[in-house]
Amino acid sequence: DFGERKGQAERMLGLMDVFLKNDPISLQKDILHHVEYTVARSRFSFDDFEAYQALAHSVRDRLIERWHDTLIHFKKEDPKRVYFLSLEFLMGRSLSNIVINLGIRDQFADALSQLGFDFEVLAEQEGDACLGNGGLARLSACQMDSLATLDYPAVGYGLRYQYGLFRQVIVDGFQHEQPDYWLNFGNPWEIERVHITYPVKFYGTVTDEFLNGEKCKVWVPGEMVEAVAYDNPIPGYGTRNTINLRLWAAKPSDQHDMESFNTGDYVDAVVNRQRAESISSILYPDDRSYQGKELRLKQQYFFVSASVQDIFRRFKDTHKKFDEFPEKVALQLNDTHPSLAIAEVMRVLLDEEHLSWHRAWDIICKIFSFTTHTVSPEGLEKIPVDLLGNLLPRHLQIIYDINFNFVEELKKMIGLDYDRLTRMSIVEEGAVKNIRMANLSVICSHTVNGVSRLHSELLRTKLFKDFYDLWPHKFQYKTNGVTQRRWIVVSNPSLCALISKWLGTEAWIRDIDLLIGLRDYATNAELHQEWKMVKKVNKIRLAEYIEAMSGLKVSLDAMFDVQTKRIHEYKRQLLNILGIIHRYDCIKNMYKNDRKKVVPRVCIIGGKAAPGYEIAKKIIKLCHVVAERINNDNDIGDLLKLVFIPDYNVSVAEMVIPGADLSQHLSTAGHEASGTGSMKFLMNGCLLLATADGSTIEMVEEIGQDNMFLFGAKAHEVVALRKKGPTLKVPLQFSRVVRMIRDGHFGFEDYFKSLCDKIEGTSDYFLLGADFMSYLEAQAAADKAFVDEERWTKMSILSAAGSGRFSTDRTIQEYAENTWDIQPCRCPF
Ligand code: OX2
């Protein structure tokens, strides 16, 4: 107790400096101290990796100071907090981001150079934390950065997977997956909280019991696992606020399964206990379909249950009445993955806190908000009733009860429209009975958000039309963003310096709207010179990477044309490759003189295919065989090169994006909910070649159609085009390139047959044939613009200048004001 130990506390304070110092000598002392005592190497002999570890620990010490101050401040102020529940966070590396947000990067760089080390070299020693698949997971990471920077009282909750997203290695052009056991080299950014643990229950039975004369449900579990907290402090920029990302790891529980120890088979019993850890062992590598997998469901409930217990514990520390719960708690569901939280909060309120159904339900309706990232009905999560009932018997009962009440209410409102009632029910009837997680989330949340304006429109008119008609007020959207701290300041330091110089301030790093000021200099010759220099520096960095990786030397005068994202049919990497084959074919058939007019290109493709996604894997192989052919054709030289970048992840993106001239976003309109890669390219002054899909539509409004290369069918035209089916005329150019693949021009014709079949005739669901001419025209327009350097540079400046709307700072501000109803809570310096 602090009161009793007040004397000692004062003495302790006197023994320590109030804050760690950031002058060069103090920093060097700190680093050496960590070399000697944390890393346990002699300070006279340590390598780059050990230096990185010591550096990371010195940074972490400073991070922890602010984190403590923030947590104490939040505790004192007791504001309403948002709890951000997400099964995936794609953090990438942390060091550079943290020192920049703490404002001590240059000090550390100086201190290190005096010790004979280079900050950038040490930063490269860090591995990526890949606890997520793609857009959804990186969005969570960017949003955490903005929550901290904008001083919002927020806590992120997720899972601490031992194996992150698989590492992609390419062998003979084929993707192979290798495990990413990322914790092998330690993780200085997390703090293990051995005392913050919660039991998580699974299986078992539910019985009726009487408590004080009232009937209540008691869940007797069949298995118990312990959730241990690992805290990851997330610093804001330009503020002392440092918030917490709490990730849960599964450990065997001491409370349960002691029986099996008494039966005598001690070794088997220990091995059984070890199995508990498998719950948090692996991230599912498929970003959209994991239906009916028990382990996946266990992961979902595991992290939800631990988080909910943590939230209740924090609330009950200072509050007695549950009616105050909605004034203090906002729960954000990042897609349906955490939506068991609804049933879990309901269960705790009913069975453990003994609130009436009416009071508990009232609380539920006030605290949950749901964001969906999905466009297609097939992408919506369903859980077989048998599976759920077996693993979480009490939750299934609660979901049934919620559904019963909902359907009764609905009947009163819409009458006995059975089709509609069937569609809206949480329970899907059929050969396999399923729980529709999206319906559960929509019914129980006060707000349903889409991730772009178009996405929201599709939700209201298609995916959730029945619900929109019933509750129009629930539906909002928050166009996604990315954080400029990571995607300009960390990844493109030269551009960052240039922007600050021309705007005369660094304030845009917190206030992104200031970027618009660059418009005033869009035709300034001096800026043009400097802007081109920055691009060149970044292209050199990328070219060196390509050479180191593949041995291929690429020309810096060529247009660097990039498409990096998960491989999906709807994202149409295939359209890109067909376009490249077409370009190759055209060059081959040109007279020597005409070749002089060709704009040289380095086409760069990168991305991972889900391990079980055959077609996506074939696309990767196709890219390699086409590259092999083109890159080894001496007749083509520097006019065209094709490179596949293996193992695309956050740190690779940080290098690729600043070096791109053009970036491609080719999803069939109506299929990309938002897209966030495009925002990163845009901020880095890269021109976009894109369909009018997801957030691209809003980008056109910000930077103008003249500054982008748009092509293809619009979302509302896609349905009609598909209906035309066999009567749709496909251009000859398209048939010709597909024929080249079929005829074995690149080899492996048998292997690619199914790929070709998928895009010809009526099976061309993603409309590659229909959009092909329009795509080639957009490519030609990009070539034309590129040769006019002045025009290109102006377009590039205007792209960056107009990218302000696509910062997560804006997204988070909108969530805070219109969805969560929370206020900033700034920690005094
Ligand atoms: C992605 C969406 O595909 C993408 O369009 C969006 O920008 C991103 O989420 C962030 O909102 N898994 N990943 C996504 O959706 C799902 C499901």
Quick overview of this protein structure:
With 829 residues, the chain is of the alpha/beta class.
Describe this structure in words.
InterPro entries: Glycg_phsphrylas (IPR011833), Glyco_trans_35 (IPR000811), Pyridoxal_P_attach_site (IPR035090). With 829 residues, the chain is α/β, with parallel strands linked by helices. It has 34 helices and 24 strands. β15 (427-428) and β16 form a beta hairpin. α2 crosses α3. The chain starts with 5 loop residues before the first helix and ends in a 9-residue tail after the last helix. Bound molecules: ligand OX2. Residues 134-136, 139, 287-288, 335, 373-374, 379, 451, 480, 672-676, 694 line the site of ligand OX2.
Task: Summarize the helices and strands and which ones pair or pack.
Blueprint: H1 6-15, H2 24-37, H3 48-77, E1 81-85, E2 89-92, H4 95-102, H5 105-114, H6 119-123, E3 129-131, H7 135-149, E4 154-159, E5 164-171, E6 174-180, E7 191-202, E8 205-211, E9 214-220, E10 223-235, E11 242-252, H8 259-262, H9 266-274, H10 294-318, H11 325-328, E12 329-334, H12 340-352, H13 357-367, E13 368-371, E14 382-384, H14 385-391, H15 393-414, H16 418-424, E15 427-428, E16 434-436, H17 437-444, E17 447-450, H18 453-463, H19 465-470, E18 475-477, H20 484-490, H21 493-503, H22 525-550, E19 559-564, H23 573-588, H24 592-595, E20 601-606, H25 614-631, E21 640-645, H26 650-656, E22 662-665, H27 677-683, E23 687-691, H28 696-703, E24 709-711, H29 715-724, H30 732-742, H31 749-759, H32 768-787, H33 789-801, H34 808-820
Parallel strand pairs: 1-4, 1-12, 4-11, 12-13, 13-17, 17-18, 19-20, 19-22, 20-21, 22-23, 23-24
Antiparallel strand pairs: 2-3, 5-6, 7-10, 8-9, 10-11, 14-16, 15-16
Helix pairs in contact: 2-3, 2-5, 3-4, 4-20, 7-34, 10-12, 12-13, 12-15, 14-15, 21-22, 23-25, 23-30, 25-31
Ligand OX2 is lined by residues 134-136, 139, 287-288, 335, 373-374, 379, 451, 480, 672-676, 694.
